Amino acid sequence: MRIGELSECTGTPRRLLRYYEEQGLLVADRSPNGYRDYDERCVDRVLQIRGLLESGLSTRIIKQILPCLGGRLIHVTGASDETIATLERERDRMRQRIECLTRSQEAISGYLDAVLRHRRPAAGRAAGTIAEPSYDLAATA
C-alpha cells in the first residue's frame, strides 16, 4: 500500500510515517517510480509505534525493542542487558506517571462531585443571595 493508504488506515499523518521511516522504526519498499510501498503488516506496526510513543517511550528506545515485539507475540530472545535496564527504568517512570495521573483524576473527580452535589439554581448565584460553599477535597479523597 502507498503512504496515503497507510496514513488513512492508521490515522497517522504522512509526515510522521516518513519520520518513523527515518528513525528506522518502519520499513517501506520502493516501487520503480520511487513511491513507498508498505506491507499490510505495517498497519499494526504503526499502531504499535504510536502506542509506545504515547506511553512516553522515545523513538530510540522503541527502535531497540521493536525487533522483540512481533505483532501479538513477544520474542524474549535478543534483548541486551542495556535494553533490559532501559525498559526497567521506563517501566518505573511510567508507573510513577500513572500514580500521579491517578491522584490528579481522583482530585478532579472529588472536585466535580462536590460541585455537582451542591449545585444551585443559576438565579440564586446571579442575585448573590447564596454564599459559595467550600469543601475540603483532602477529606473526600
Automatic annotation (TrEMBL):
**Keywords, ordered alphabetically:** DNA-binding
Q: Pfam family of this protein, just one?
A: MerR_1
Gene3D superfamilies reported in the protein's UniProt record: 1.10.1660.10
Where the record annotates domain HTH merR-type, the positions are 1-68
Q: Which SUPFAM superfamilies match?
A: Putative DNA-binding domain (SSF46955)
Cross-referenced PANTHER family: HTH MERR-TYPE DOMAIN-CONTAINING PROTEIN, REDOX-CYCLING DRUG-SENSING TRANSCRIPTIONAL ACTIVATOR SOXR
Q: What is this protein called?
A: MerR family transcriptional regulator
